Amino acid sequence: MAGEIKQFLYVNRKAPYGTVYALESLEVVLIGAAFDQDVRLLFMDDGVFQIKKDQNTEASGLKNFSPTYNALGDYDVNKIYVSKESLDERGLTQDDLMPLVYEDEDDDWAEKSSIKIVSADEIRDLMEGSDVVLSF
Amino acid sequence: MPSMDVNGNAVEVDEEGYLADINDWNKEIGSALAVTEEIELTDAHWEVIDFLREYYDEYQIAPAVRVLTKAIGKKLGKDKGNSKYLYELFPYGPAKQACKVGGLPKPTGCI
Which of A5, A9, A114, A115 has its CA 20 to 30 Å from the CA of residue A122? Predict the structure, then answer.
């Protein structure tokens, strides 16, 4: 394919419901995944709630779109970073998040975790190492 | 909103002919939607449609064609998980047409 592959970082900082940012970001990621890009997702601040497991939107009448994050692996989006500080501030650990996984084509389709918990320093490096940073 | 006649019942569809409410769907409606796409449904078609409905049920999205092809290959075998096979069944785009017949919204990433 023509052109160079760019490194995209999608930064998700808002709670999943109440604003349209989380769902919009997810849709952009899924659509963008059709193109040759190196896609990485970062969840920080209230954005960590977007991938919290056992979401229930029944009382709010909103559509629970959290199952869609499980499809990211199918779309070859398997670099998902989560801020450790943001989890700590909210009393959450990785066990509270959905176990997002992908199948490694180069390792006999072994199922592997897509999630990496990162520090503020690592987040800085991630941003510096990206060609495009999109914040939602 | 436009509607479509299925055995005397009016079923709501959107301006592109996709079913308005996925909960309205049944196989009769699927067959009627297939007529609008000029597709004669066979067991092979239903296999793909059933697969898509299950995928939607699990992930709340209709997959892009690339993802669909890969997932079908894994579930139903490599001889079915390729564009040639799927395009023979659904000449105007497997994800788009199979979603329509299956009563699902237009696939995410489908332009």
Answer: A5
Q: Residue B62 belongs to what domain range?
A: 43-101
Nearest-angstrom CA–CA distance, A24 and A19: 10
CATH number at residue B14: 3.30.1420
**pTM of the complete model:** 0.87
Neighbours of A54 (CB within 10 A): 7
**What domain count does chain B have?**
2
Residue pair A16/A26 in contact (Cβ under 8 Å)? The answer is no
Paired tokens of B95: 């994800």
With a CB-CB cutoff of 8 Å, which residues 1-60 of chain B face chain A?
Answer: 58-60
The predicted complex's ipTM stands at 0.81
Residue to mutate among A24, A36, A51, A75, with most B CBs inside 10 A, is A75
Is residue B107 situated within a structural domain?
no
